[in-house]
Request: fold
Amino acid sequence: APQTNANVENEGVKNYDPELARDVLAGLTQTPKSLSSKYFYDGAGSKLFQQIMELPEYYPTRTEFKILEEQQAEIAGFFGLTDFFHLVELGAGDGLKTKILLRQLLHMKADFEYVPVDISGDILKQLESSLQTELPALRTESFAGDYFKALHWLQHNKEGRKVVLFLGSNIGNFEDNGDLEFLQEIRKYLKPEDKVLVGFDLRKDPRTIRQAYDDAAGVTAAFNLNLLKRLNRELGADFNLKQFEHFTDYDPLEGVVKSYLVSKKQQTVTFSALNHRVSFAAWEAIHTENSHKYTPAQIEELGKKAGLKSEQFFTDEKHYFADVLFRV
Ligand code: AVJ
Reply:
């Protein structure tokens, strides 16, 4: 009987993450179905994202890298170098882009401490060891956990002003007003002498944007489908990856890339660890990601609503991307 099978398969996934289970069930029992893009980044997903950043179609990383490289001295100057500060990076990742700024700040003899924050302790350990060999003079104190827990901890345990980095256009990944709410939350931790540098992907030819999320080699498709692989492994689901496909489109009115996993036929998926089944109609879509693109005016407005003034835009010659420096 199916019940018995489910119990047998259960053995493999006894220690599932209850938060993942709750989010996934909530997302797949509502209409339209959705899964949070924050779950893309398991081991395989992080590797696939590394590959995405190398794709010819995926311009954001390369463009932001160039902005930081070419304008590093000016950007560092805007941080204010006359007194000590904490350079807090939310979602530090591999720090490849940040190392440009870190090197520059050390070169300018800035008095600062680097505080990389990431949900993944593994990523932070890798970052710390690479920093130790590449930039031995750097003072680092990493924080594994939630971004706002990190800001709270800093406020209560550390003296001195701060410069907060939120790079890579991660700000674009929120739903609805999530970008505004995120900046409003950061604002609560800021003092007049603090700064925030945020990476925004700008509006451009809609075809350029669409291609960046639907590459010819199919890496982004694999990245999206990996979410289902993760649910198979971590929640004992039985998604047949051949029966779902990656679909993505950019709406130039809304300025949002929306990505989906579409069920190619009517089918039922069983989550053996959760004793739960989810049915899909033929061509029913699971919404998996939003990626917002902004006009400069929208960025100013967003800042204003969050109580932040945009002090300086750092952009590339094609105006594909902007790192924007805000203060209160
Ligand atoms: C990591 C959120 C910046 O939205 O461009 C890349 C994630 N998704 N290709 C983005 C992503 C598909 C990426 N961010």
